[in-house]
Write a structure and sequence with these properties.
Elements lengths: L1 H10 L12 E3 L5 E3 H7 L7 E2 L6 E2 L8 H19 L15 E3 L4 E3 L1 H4 L9 E3 H56 L6 H48 L2 H7 L3 H8 L19 H6 L7 E7 L5 H6 L17 E7 L7 E7 L6 E7 H4 L9 E9 L2 E6 L4 E3 L7 E7 L4 E6 L4 E6 L8 E7 L8
Antiparallel strand pairs: 1-2, 3-4, 5-6, 5-7, 8-9, 9-18, 10-15, 11-12, 11-18, 12-13, 13-14, 15-16, 16-17
Helix pairs in contact: 5-6, 5-7, 6-8
């Protein structure tokens, strides 16, 4: 009989914590764990991990409580509680009866006679088992909320780490783009060029220092959150009587830990007017017709989005982009030489790209390397990421919401993107490997095109 009971108890025990299940869930491979253990032990809080029992990949992201297993655990716990309550150590010294009642006002254990006495009669009472389960439900709810904060903080930390690592390189490349743009203008703008570059270095350093401080703050917050999560879990596992007596202010302390969550630094450079730039570009301005076609969910940008982490989960697992209607346009002319400039109205659209692509890609060869040079904007959760391709690089600039100008310098092997209304530089792709024939291209999931 003891052997059978032992096997039964083993079936109700989590292989990670070696305790009875807490909010048990069953993975797609058939093994069960505490929800809290599975979350807490996943490396880097990824939505993709491996089962500690069979090592198979766990692809699920939304787990449901195994109700039957949870009820079996509650039944076993009730049996254990019954043995504990009727032990000699848990007897009232006045009435020599088992303490079965929990006084919520004084947080003490009482026998039935004490609970109806003049001292305690007006207090709030319930059975020890019922009170313990109510406290555990509060702990579990708090752990779930705390875990969401852990994941939020980790996502923000990854953003900060990636931005910090790429920031110095980005500021340097922007400086080169600014120099190149001014060098193509009259020498009279040399003082403005100097001031512009000086401001870039000053602003770049300020943001870099903010990023480093933010990264440290998020790392410290991660340790506080995980430590609090472990403390809540430890409290959950305590026997009913000890749980009630030791509960204290743990929920208030958990709430305090979740306050003042550090947020990512807004790593964006200020747009600065470049005098004479638009006068030069407008000299090459062209208006042409574009053909409308259809493509599926930015097939032509998917690889670049994933390589930048825009279309990926925490550990680089690709998201499935929505199969929404996507409008793809390409020009009815092609460029083989010279300088060309055109503008498009973006308004408040998102998931778009504009620039140039090679003729062979338009004709159907979608496996070409460096087939297009574009500026793109992708929406991930509630955030927008601006980027360029060939090579894929994140651009730390505000999301363009008005006119965007494209300047192609075929012999200069560069494509420059500008904000015409502010006469400011968005970014510049240099050292391009253009194919013999280039076409203007625009793609967007949520808006039809306005050409200027």
């Amino acid at each position: 009989m003891d052997r059978i009971l032992q096997i039964f108890q083993n079936d109700l025990t989590c292989s990670i914590c070696r305790n009875y299940f807490i909010d048990p869930i069953t993975t797609d491979c058939g093994h069960s764990f505490c929800r809290t253990c599975l979350y807490h032990n996943w490396p880097n809080m990824s939505v993709l991990s491996h089962c500690s029992e069979c090592q198979k990949a766990i692809q699920q992201t939304d787990f449901h409580t195994n109700v039957r297993l949870n009820q079996m655990v509650l039944t076993v716990k009730q049996g254990s509680l019954w043995h504990s309550l009727w032990s000699t150590e848990n007897r009232c010294r006045i009435h020599m009866e088992a303490k079965q009642i929990f006084c919520e006002d004084q947080r003490s254990l009482l026998c039935i006679n004490c609970s109806i006495s003049q001292e305690h009669g007006a207090h709030r009472h319930c059975s020890i088992g019922e009170a313990a389960e109510q406290h555990r439900e509060k702990l579990l709810e708090t752990m779930c909320s705390l875990w969401e904060k852990c994941c939020e903080n980790y996502r923000n930390l990854i953003v900060e780490i990636v931005t910090t690592k790429s920031w110095v390189i980005y500021v340097t490349s922007q400086g080169e783009a600014i120099r190149a743009t001014y060098d193509e203008l009259a020498p009279i703008e040399s003082l403005e060029k100097h001031n512009h570059l000086e401001r870039l270095q000053r602003e770049g350093k300020e943001i870099f220092d903010q990023l480093r401080d933010s990264e440290v703050s998020m790392t410290n917050k991660r340790e506080l959150l995980r430590g609090m999560y472990a403390e809540l879990k430890e409290m959950y596992y305590k026997p009913d009587v000890q749980l009630l007596l030791d509960f204290g202010d743990i929920l208030n302390r958990s709430e305090a830990v979740c306050e003042h969550m550090p947020q990512p630094v807004k790593a964006e450079l200020t747009a600065v007017t470049i005098s004479g730039m638009m006068t030069r570009f407008n000299f090459f301005k062209e208006i042409f017709s574009l053909h409308l076609g259809k493509t599926r969910a930015h097939d032509f940008l998917q690889g670049d989005l994933i390589s930048l982490g825009i279309g990926c989960g925490i550990q680089g697992v690709p998201f499935i982009f929505p199969q929404s209607e996507c409008f793809l346009y390409w020009g009815d002319i092609f460029f083989t030489h010279g300088q060309h400039y055109w503008e498009l109205q973006m308004r408040d659209t998102w998931n778009w790209a504009l620039g140039v692509c090679c003729e062979d890609w338009v004709e159907g060869n979608r496996n070409l390397q460096k087939a297009f040079y574009v500026l793109g904007c992708a929406k991930n959760d509630m955030h927008h990421s601006v980027f360029t391709t060939s090579p894929p690089v994140l651009q730390y600039v505000p999301k363009p919401t008005g006119l965007v100008g494209v300047f192609l310098d075929y012999e200069g092997e560069s494509v420059t993107f500008v904000n015409p209304e502010e006469s400011s530089l968005i970014c510049r792709i240099s050292s391009c490997s253009f194919s013999p024939h280039l076409r203007p291209i625009f793609c967007c999931c949520h808006s039809r095109l306005e050409i200027h």
